[in-house]
Amino acid sequence: MNDISMNTSTVMSGPSGRAMxxxxxxxxxxxxxxxxxxERNSSAQYFAMSLWFAERELRGFASFFKxxxxxxxxxxxxxxxxxxxxxxxxxxxxxxxxxxxxxxxxSVICHAFQMEADVTSSxxxxxxxxxxxxxTRSNVFLDPIIESQxxxxxxxxxxxxxxxxxxxxxxxxxxIDNELSTN
Length: 183
Ligand SMILES: [Fe+2]
Known about the structure:
It is found in: Cytoplasm. It is an enzyme of class 1 (oxidoreductase). Pfam families: Ferritin. Its EC number is 1.16.3.2. Belongs to the ferritin family. Prokaryotic subfamily. The protein is an all-alpha fold. The chain has one domain (26-181): Ferritin (Up-down Bundle). Helices cover 69% and strands 0% of the residues. α1 (26-54) packs antiparallel against α2 and α2 packs across α5 (170-181). It is elongated, with a radius of gyration of 21 Å. The termini are far apart. The structure holds fe (ii) ion.
């Protein structure tokens, strides 16, 4: 050991026992757990939507929502990995049974659009909490996520617009279904 070696006790450990550069405020950690749960609920909900379309021969919509379900699971995983990187333990909360009853294709897409908007609001709340806690690492983590979330809203608004335009006419709905199958 030379004189410039660090005393190992100066490195903080987080709740998980991993090295931690900066402690996190409890309120921010709790909000991140809740957001992670929201992503897992979205994944379950999109899976249910995928099945609803598969039962109605709309395989393009079904495959689009299956893909969305998997990407929400990826988002949840991204939040879990971030918490671990910050020395936190990840608490997985209960997830709700998804809705499986809709009266029309338009009501499924409206539901999906509203879920995306709710996720965006939750991300904005996390962003403000991180700013108030001067937890810049969290703001940097959230920046690209918020940007891609805004793109998701746009994507669902576009699909909703097309479904409304189709006005429940099967030929038009089959064209949209076909477009979604190539995504
Ligand atoms: Fe997501």
